[in-house]
Amino acid sequence: MSESIIEKVFFPKLMSYETYKERKSGAGQILTGLGKWWGRKPLVYARALLLGILLPASDDIKRDTEIYMKLLGLSERELLKRKNKKLEPIVVYEYMTDEEKADCGAVIEYKTNGSVLHTFKKEVVKRIKDENYSLDTLPAEIAFKYATEEEKKQYFKVHLGLKCNQYELEIFKRLPYDLKLKYCEGLDKVDNLSRETWEDINNYLGTNAYSYQEIVKQLGERRFGHVPTVGDPFCGGGNIPFEAARLGFNVYASDLNPVAMLLTWSALNLLGLPEDKIKKLKAFQERIFKLADKQITEWGIEHNSQGHRANAYLYCTEAVCPDCGWRVPLAPSWIIGKNTRTVAILKENAESKSFDIEIKMNASDEEMEIAKKGTVMRSELKCPHCKNSVPISKIRGDKKDEKGNTIWGLRRWEKHEFVPREDDVFQERLYCIRYEKEYKDENGRIRTERYYKAPDEEDLEREKKVIELLGERFSEWQQKGYIPSDVIEEGYNTSQPIRERGWAYWHQLFNPRQLLLHGLLMELIDKEAKTREERIVGLLGVNRCCNWNSKLCIWDPTKSGGIGHTAQTFYNQALNTLFNYGVRGLKALDESWFFKLNRLFNIEHKVLYTNLLDARILQNYCMVWLTDPPYADAVNYHELSEFFLAWDKKFLKEVFPEWYTDSKRALAIKGSDDQFKLAMTEAFKNIAEHTLEGGYVIIMFTHQSAKVFASLVQILLSAGLRIMNAWSVATETESVGIDEGNYVQSTVAIILKKDSAYKRQKAFLRQLRGIVKNEVEKQIHYMMEVENGLKGNKIFTSADLELAGYYAALRVLTAYDISESEEKMTEFLEDMRSYASSIILPEGFKGLGYDIESIREVWASLNNYEKYYIRGLEFEKEGERKIKLYQDAARGLGILDYDDLLGENRVNRARVKTATEFGMTILETQHGFSNTMLRYILAAINVTQEKIREIGDETTAISIGHEWLKNKLGSEYWHKKLKVEILLRYISNLSILPQWVEDSRIARHLLERVVNDRM
């Protein structure tokens, strides 16, 4: 069987842009609407991997690569087809030639904005100090050139003549790929290619396909003898099986967790239904919601006496200050609506030793400022009466035993309780309601107005009625499974609500109003649903309501246009208790209850098999396994999913009688490194056994722990699979909930192949050093050649190339039987990573004016921290600010403590520190960057800057900085003077970066001193 194209080439950079586009679409992502799952991998990444397995590689790799790009929808023709937005005038102007600007009569003018404009011009003048412009002589064109993107948007106004529209598509073609995507539909929404593109593909491959389903069938039968089955034994939220089915593959999907299987079953079996059945399911959603609305209206628990309806309720926790005895409402902030300027104002009530809460809209600036400061800060109660601060742990009554273990002070709530007892430490209080009323405007049109108010006596009576109504139904609903009755089993995440609030049962994470509303929906589903699909659609709706309507939902005053909105329970992978939270009325739950139901693929004639099963005992055979396994300590799926499982058990038992309905904590792959490694080894040995001969296993892996990553590699080797290649793509964003601890923004896809006939020869690492070096060079040069043949399109970063070299080394090693220790293996691989890095010269080094051999020698002499720092500068020069690139570069160079080198480390705003930002930190320390020549050069720039500020004489300051560098380097200065020159010249060329303008200018002056220095 021939090789697959993905064994040779992939497009990490372009796919990173595409996956980021998909993830940033938020609610627009196709499967997230079905329900919450953690760490879903983008659909476009799964598509790229599966099609890469299907495409055979030929001797004409450049042409193969072009066809692969076309098949993925990455070609210029498909980008033009995906374009669905017009370019902003400012973008058109920036990418026009001078001739085009003249032809269009385009001019650029300052907005007349008084002092703000003056400040802006002043900042630009500072950046271009060496060109001798003043505020009065600064031309608009020059200001535009040196302005930041934000300044351009705020302070410039572009006037283009009518002719500019004729350049729209031409200028779109000139945009860098990531900017093009801003004006395009996401690749995950593309279900077919243009006919012209299919004809290009067919002419090359000898196929006759005009859809993904047809190409999968034809290539599958040609390569494997049948349409391949794609399996995912850790299917989670179902993204991989869904995309495989949508492309036309047969699908097997399994998971240990019943909530994961519910989501996967739904993706495969609901979104492929015929339109008439989907229409009936939508009608079912409407019917249940209308019946719930009717019942709530009859109960009279959301409407006031004026007929206005509440859509949001704000609650806060109250506790007694131990220092003064006053009962204090707790909240980190009292701002309710940012744009409506709505705040809560605490008023002392001496008679009751408590606080009345006034709600005020259109608050003054002073009142808004006061409201920013709440009564809880950094886990301390800030008493507004006595002004003392008390740790929340003290209020809870937490203590330490003789061994130093914490004994949690709160009592555990009992099963029948759904409100706090009067003697509980924490009470709950309704302090604000948002109502909406309808009225007719002067044109007779119906308008809606929302307003906030403090609860009055009528509102509090309605609160009592909610508790009474729930109390009447509570036991019956628990018995029938309409509301949870399960105890919360203690664990890493699940112990948090127990120790912080005393909530011992899952229903206690919801207040009475939420339990009544969700329980009513469950009761109506049970009575009205006639088919399995209706029950599942109803259950998915309730799960979504629970995620967006629990006592763990933050009230965010900036959302919904600044009027305020509740966030979801799982804004990260934890069960975080809150001091104040928002509750949605039924009308505000419509966006949770109603989720998108569309026919996205045809399930007819497809083999779709789902199973609730441990990967260690699966029995199904697949040609391709593509999976995103658990990552040791990354996400506790088994614990977090119990939040939903507590609500789901009734219907799951009825709809899937063969399924179990617990999270199988004991079997979940988790825990310490040894436990993780043992469980994963068993799972992947079983997966390898159930891979058809010549088939593939692709593992997606998202983790930054070198130890966990090394364990995974050992696991895969023990499974008897051979690593063919690996590719890293940015898959996470700042908003997906996995953004702290050991989680990274990139995912490595490791491509493995089953070849039982391949016999591994015994070898020692020392024997393989030359072979591995050759393979590393071959891989890197091959990727460079591919890129050069693609009309100048840059599809690989230096980090991509370095990592490719590292994985090329793995590819060789897994072809041999090597019995040496893991420590020696790790050391060998790190050497090969360094070797890969030495091959790839940064672009900024190539044009410094020195002979290439000297440049290569200097680059090879740098340690990995110096190389990492320069790689970071290269990313920034290319406009690449994604933290994923910096993480990949660190992984490729084998360094861990790179955070000290970063000036910014946000997901899409990463960069290394400037010389000035470094100051004199991490000098003469144990850090790997500390005593390097590059670090000393940066410090010398900083010394010069400090002396300029101190004495005001730039010439003297430069002399002092130069002497400091010479003294620091000692005899090394003269022995490696050329290296000092090259590094200084490189830094002096960084003035194109705004924050480097001054430091690069100083570097130029220091360079002159070094060049002219003689012994």
UniProtKB/TrEMBL annotation:
Concerning NCBIfam families, the annotation shows: DUF1156_antiphage
Where in this chain does the record put each DUF1156 domain? 16-69
Please give the InterPro entries that the UniProt record associates with this protein. Answer: Antiphage_assoc (IPR049953), DUF1156 (IPR009537), SAM-dependent_MTases_sf (IPR029063)
Protein's recorded name: DUF1156 domain-containing protein
